[in-house]
Amino acid sequence: MTPATLYFDVVSPYAYIMDVLLRRASLPLEITLKPVLFAGLLKAHDNKGPAEIPRKRQYTYELCTWLAQRHDIPFRMPPVHPFNPIRYLRLIIALGSSRVVASAVFDSLYREGADPDDPRIWRALTVALGVAEPDARIEAAAVKLALRHNTEEAVAAGVFGVPTVLAGDRLFWGVDSLPMLEAWLAGDPALESSAMQAARQVRPGISRL
């Protein structure tokens, strides 16, 4: 099994789709889940999120809905988006960053389309996960520090968006990178072709900054 890290934020509907597809694919990967704050990545790279650009926001929701339908994934956008994901990210960390917990959060938000800001949804989720005193758990200093550390680690690794799989020294960003990840795992020579080598050497010709 090849060790890999999945950096994700539950604010991203793409991350939900990636979670489902990775579970279905049964790739030879030993994946460590690392919840990160997408807003922290955006700040580090001086970038805007897709939900901060009106037409891109609409396009993102439509594309995610279409992708889910194409892959036969139950999907419904929550009624409010973007939302503050911090308590959900901290909950995942507080419960060991397991796939079971992450998937439960994703399912609540994007399979059921629950309102992430509704306290009843939060309570139902934490009760289902068997969490005692969830609000206290997510306020623990160690949990807060872990989320910050995960985000800083992702930035240091060059991660610029979510979801991203880091395998070896390669980043695979987004749902559409899964075929490339599969090719890399299979040793596809196309990933080391002369054209690929040339692509890595392209220089910037102009900068707007």
From TrEMBL:
It catalyses: 2-hydroxychromene-2-carboxylate = (3E)-4-(2-hydroxyphenyl)-2-oxobut-3-enoate. Gene3D superfamilies: Glutaredoxin. The keyword Isomerase applies. GO terms for biological process: glutathione metabolic process; naphthalene catabolic process. It comes from the Bacteria. Residues 6-183 form the DSBA-like thioredoxin domain. The active site is at S12 (nucleophile). It is an enzyme of class 5 (isomerase). Its EC number is 5.99.1.4. GO terms for molecular function: 2-hydroxychromene-2-carboxylate isomerase activity; glutathione peroxidase activity; glutathione transferase activity. Keywords: Isomerase. InterPro entries: DSBA-like_thioredoxin_dom, GST_Kappa/NadH, HCCAis_GSTk, NahD-like, Thioredoxin-like_sf. Belongs to the GST superfamily. NadH family. This is 2-hydroxychromene-2-carboxylate isomerase. It comes from Zoogloea dura.
